[in-house]
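> call design_seq(struct)
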């Protein structure tokens, strides 16, 4: 039974857009949305991540309304697929309450449309119009909120236009049955269910994630957190709309995931050691690095030329570093650190070491030369510290999930080859700047129309492709401009707020360039460390120990959070990274001593 819509006046129907789309509503027009007033619960509606619920206050009409709450990477999208008549004009309307509430229609066969309101307050009516394509028999209408916003409300949602009616029209499919879920790795789950007669596709729903559409009675869901229970439901879809959800099925992914680097403590301290150069901080011999440091990144391996892929590493010359140890002493000290449970990696790049693997020859040279360094010094793995113009995205490369830019594709291939060569204990870390990661929430590459900095978000495809191999990501929360967080506010360096907001993005996930169909999935907490300068001399954005502790308290204990509201609490956050061990010694070991005091080291 379709719900009457007495609140739609003749004036409302005569809006300019509707008249432009086609003739005004006639007597044969009808409201085609089922349960648009939510008087019978969520019947007919599917809400992402279990975000929707029916409430009795506030309401606009009747006794019920929809309340939908964004959480993490989910924008609380509630939708319904409706049967329509081809080549016909329709008007979509709803009453909403809240900030950044959207109303829209997809699959129109012409131009998909939407309307939105930015400001909270009293009920507001959103309206939009469209014409269906010559072969369009169904459209999906939806409402959703926005990331970092409070719950929003929707009521009296209608789609008014010609009723396709008549016999022979498709019927709503039944809910799928027999859903099973099986974890196939630490980051993926296989789903299967019984096929539904008359269904043309299926939609997989998972708490906290955007719906996944598939055409067969099975699906593989990837990008999941390890050692976590994930719950799924499935609906069947045809031209008549979307069925009720199936009974839930859950699976628990095994712990550990990929990533290698077994043996790191639950909370690790990562530092860069100036081994190939000297500066104002002074040279520190490997044997003199304190036991506080769990991962020691040797700075730096650098290419013979920007595009050669041929990486070389040497100890600091005696003329530059009078107290440098011999190669034999250095290698012996590396073995001693490893015997004490520490990891020693070669870090490639740095501020001056631009690396562009633009060709397969450069890719292969990278693999062989990095492998030689690892073998010669007996190292545990690789740190990727590509900065400057090492990574940028080619025009038209707009999807981080399927990159096409050679320097990105070749880097991913090279690292996977090294991982396969050295096996599961290979330690892989990355130290991108915020410009290459968190800025991707707003901008990605040169953008769909060009004109943006092509380096924006350029690390995202690398991180995503290697997430099952990644041991640690420690973004440099320094030497950074202001960056927008998931609260859609800009955050600046130097205080706890910046580290909280930037880390929350990695542990929550975010839509890339605002595209809700392209969400960068959250990393595991054990894969994430916060990168900071050790002293005011080490880099812009130094954070005092008290502020560092506030950031750790907020992210791991949900205290000292200030004005920023995180999307979770992660006691398993791996730890801290600093530039650098040398600068920390210069500063009286303040950084590492504070870490030890906080985590009881």
């Amino acid at each position: 039974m379709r719900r009457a819509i007495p609140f739609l006046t003749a004036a409302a129907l005569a809006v300019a857009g509707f008249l432009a789309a086609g003739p005004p509503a006639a007597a044969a027009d009808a409201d085609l949305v089922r349960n648009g007033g939510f008087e019978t619960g969520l019947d007919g509606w599917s809400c992402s991540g279990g975000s929707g619920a029916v409430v009795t206050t506030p309401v606009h009409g009747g006794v019920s309304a929809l309340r939908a709450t964004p959480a993490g990477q989910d924008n609380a999208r509630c939708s319904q697929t409706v049967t329509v008549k081809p080549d016909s004009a329709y008007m979509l309307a709803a009453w909403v309450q809240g900030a950044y509430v959207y109303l829209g229609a997809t699959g129109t066969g012409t131009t998909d449309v939407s309307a939105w309101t930015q400001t909270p307050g009293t009920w507001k009516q959103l309206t939009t119009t469209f014409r269906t394509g010559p072969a369009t028999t169904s459209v999906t209408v939806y409402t959703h909120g926005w990331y970092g916003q409070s719950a929003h409300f929707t009521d009296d949602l209608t789609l008014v236009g010609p009723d396709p009616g008549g016999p022979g029209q498709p019927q709503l499919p039944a809910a799928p049955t027999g859903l099973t879920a099986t974890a196939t790795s630490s980051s993926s789950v296989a789903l299967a269910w019984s096929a539904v007669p008359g269904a043309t596709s299926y939609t997989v729903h998972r708490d906290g994630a955007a719906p996944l559409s598939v055409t067969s009675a099975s699906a593989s869901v990837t990008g999941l957190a390890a050692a976590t229970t994930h719950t799924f439901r499935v609906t069947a879809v045809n031209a008549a709309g979307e069925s009720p959800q199936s009974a839930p099925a859950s699976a628990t992914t095994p712990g550990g995931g990929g990533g290698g680097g077994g043996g790191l403590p639950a909370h690790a301290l990562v530092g860069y050691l100036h081994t190939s150069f000297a500066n104002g901080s002074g040279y520190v011999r490997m044997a003199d690095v304190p036991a506080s440091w769990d991962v020691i990144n040797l700075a730096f391996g650098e290419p013979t030329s920007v595009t050669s892929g041929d990486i070389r590493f040497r100890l600091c010359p005696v003329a530059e570093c009078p107290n440098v140890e011999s190669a034999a002493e250095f290698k012996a000290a590396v073995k001693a650190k490893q015997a004490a449970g520490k990891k020693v990696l070669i870090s490639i790049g740095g501020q001056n070491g631009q690396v562009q693997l633009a060709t397969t020859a450069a890719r292969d040279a990278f693999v062989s030369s990095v492998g030689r360094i690892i073998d010669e010094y007996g190292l545990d793995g690789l740190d990727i510290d590509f900065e400057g113009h090492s990574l940028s995205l080619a025009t038209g490369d707009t999807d981080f999930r399927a990159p096409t830019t050679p320097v990105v594709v070749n880097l991913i291939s090279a690292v996977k080859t090294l991982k396969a060569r050295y096996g599961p204990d290979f330690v892989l870390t990355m130290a991108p700047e915020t410009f290459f990661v968190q800025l991707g929430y707003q901008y990605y590459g040169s953008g769909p129309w060009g004109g943006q900095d092509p380096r924006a978000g350029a690390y995202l495809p690398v991180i995503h492709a290697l997430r099952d191999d990644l041991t640690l990501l420690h973004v440099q929360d320094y030497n950074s401009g202001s960056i927008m967080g998931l609260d859609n506010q800009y955050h600046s360096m130097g205080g706890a707020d910046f580290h909280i907001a930037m880390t929350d993005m990695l542990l929550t996930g975010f839509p890339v360039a605002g595209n809700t169909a392209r969400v960068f999935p959250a990393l595991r907490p054990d894969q994430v460390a916060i990168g900071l300068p050790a002293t005011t001399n080490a880099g812009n954005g130094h954070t005092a120990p008290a502020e560092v502790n506030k950031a750790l308290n907020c992210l791991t204990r949900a205290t000292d959070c200030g004005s920023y509201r995180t999307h979770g609490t992660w006691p398993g956050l791996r730890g801290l990274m600093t530039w650098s061990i040398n600068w920390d010694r210069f500063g009286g070991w303040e950084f590492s001593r504070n870490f030890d005091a906080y985590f009881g080291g």
